[in-house]
Amino acid sequence: MREAQEPDDYAGYTELDDGHGRFEDAGYRGVEFADEADEEVAPRRSGARRAVLVAAGGVFAALLAVGGYGLYNIVNAVQGGNTSSSDGGGAQGPDTAAKGPQEPPTADQAAAVAKDFLAAWGRGDVTAASALTDKPETARAALAVFRENVPTRSLALTPTGPAPAGTASDPAVGFRVKAEFENTTGAWEYDSALSVVRSQEGKAVVHWAPTVLHPHLATGGTIAVKQLPDPVSKPVDRNGKPLDGFPSLTAVLAKIGPADGATVVNGRAVVLSGTGREPEQLFVLTPPSAPQVKLTLDAGLQQVAEEAVKQQAAGGKPASLVAVQPSTGNILAMAYSPSGHNRAVSGGQPPGSTMKVITSAALLEAGVSPDTVVPCKETTFSPRPWHNDEPGNFPSYTLADDFSHSCNTGFIDKGLEKLQPGTLTKVARDQFGLGLEWHIGIDSRDATVPVPANNDDAASEYIGQGRIQVNSLAMASVAATVQSGTFRQPVLREDAKRATAPGKLPADVARDLRSMMSKTATQGTARAPMSGLSGQIGAKTGTVEAGGSQATNSWFIAYRGDLAVAAEVEGGGHGNSAAGVAAAQVLKAGG
Question: Other CB atoms closer than 10 Å to residue 174's CB: what's the count?
Answer without folding.
Answer: 18
